[in-house]
Design a protein that fits this description.
This protein has 360 residues and is an alpha/beta fold. It folds into two domains: 171 residues, Periplasmic binding protein-like II (D-Maltodextrin-Binding Protein, domain 2); 155 residues, D-Maltodextrin-Binding Protein, domain 2 (3-Layer(aba) Sandwich). 44% of the residues lie in helices and 16% in strands.
Length: 360
């Protein structure tokens, strides 16, 4: 049964995590001994620095539950947009400064590049037996959510007959009524947001009609942002009417708080992205990092993510509420194919075409 976020406090989460942890490891003495040593070594380190593109409010329950289980580990949380997160890590490495202990981002291509370039520490989490095989890359990177990418609109201000059901529907709407939506449409800026660039590049791979959508959006004098939560807040306040290529978790969380917004899972195709966790080789507190990753992937951790509308990667954690039809899902596959997005020639061409499309 899904545990409500309103009643699932971090104390209860810590108790659940402790119970699940003990139950799974009592059946495997060697695993129990190994994990016991990990707990002790992590406690000796006494600190954990998490750098992430996920807003702290989205995983506050998870952080509090982890702190409740491990009060001797001081957790420092740094929130950056996905592009800055990647650049900051490389800068710290280049300057010989301490890096984050664990890096979490939805910019899947940038995370895979860290792995491909040899920056990731391999760790075989005992929780990986509960994950689909595609969610783990050589024990160096772990996907821990599978979240649809959606449209969000202001349900009070957007006319019922204008609600687009698909990318094609959005293109048609904005072609017919560009003046009605002048300055009222938003999406990520792919030049400044790694997440935004990933989504746009994936849209192009799935459908060349993406260019037609960009042209239609361009006629409305759209707004571009680097933070999804900012766009969703503006839609909720009525400053924007619609934003597209949004993480469903952000939208559904805001909707659950009573804001006048609604979500559309596009019925022509719905991208599915995963947040990726990587432990750097240069992490100063690798044992604390491993402990946090285990908790992130555990039944308790995944249940807490689900309570914040982040689709968990484990199949044994149920989700409630709206969901797209499985037939329209288009997962972004975590693997070497993502590196094509980051080829500098391809990136320049994609962004040049994007600018040209909107300028026209």
């Amino acid at each position: 049964m899904m545990i409500s976020r309103r009643t699932f406090t971090f104390v209860a989460a810590a108790c659940l995590a402790s119970a699940c942890d003990m139950s799974s490891r009592n059946n495997n003495p060697s695993l129990a001994d190994s994990h016991s040593r990990l707990w002790k070594d992590a406690a000796k380190e006494g600190a954990l620095r998490i750098d992430t593109a996920t807003d702290q409010h989205e995983i506050v329950d998870l952080l509090e539950a982890f702190r409740g289980l491990h009060p001797n580990i001081a957790v420092r949380y740094q929130h950056l947009n996905s592009s800055d997160l990647h650049a900051n890590f490389l800068k710290e490495v280049g300057e010989g400064r301490p890096t984050a202990d664990i890096i979490i981002s939805s910019a899947m291509d940038l995370q895979f590049k860290l792995v491909n370039d040899g920056f990731a520490l391999a760790y075989a989490s005992p929780e990986k037996i509960h994950l689909p095989s595609w969610a783990v890359w050589k024990d160096e990177a772990y996907a821990f959510t599978a979240e649809p990418i959606v449209f969000v609109y202001n349900k009070t201000l957007l006319p019922q007959e204008d609600i687009p059901a698909s990318h094609e529907g959005l293109t048609d709407l904005l072609r017919r009524k560009p003046h009605d939506y002048y300055g009222k449409i938003a999406t990520y800026d792919p030049e400044r947001s790694g997440t935004g660039y990933l989504y746009y590049a994936q849209d192009l791979l799935i459908s060349r009609d993406t260019i037609e959508l960009a042209q239609a959006v361009g006629r409305t004098h759209p707004k571009f942002y680097i933070l999804g939560v900012e766009m969703i807040d503006k839609v909720a306040r009525g400053e924007l009417l619609l934003a597209y290529n949004m993480m469903s978790s952000y939208v559904l969380e805001k909707k659950s708080q009573g804001f006048d917004i609604e979500v559309v899972f596009p019925n022509d195709y719905t991208l599915v992205m995963s947040r990726i966790a990587v432990i750097p080789k240069l992490a100063r507190h690798p044992n604390a990092s491993k402990l946090f990753l285990d908790f992130l992937l555990s039944e308790a951790g995944q249940t807490l993510l689900a309570s914040r509308h982040m689709q968990p990667i484990r199949s044994d954690i149920p989700m409630e509420g709206s969901a797209p039809s499985p037939e329209v899902l288009r997962p972004i596959h975590f693997g070497p194919s993502l590196l094509a997005n980051l080829d500098q020639f391809r990136r320049r061409e994609v962004l040049r075409e994007w600018r040209r499309t909107f300028e026209s």
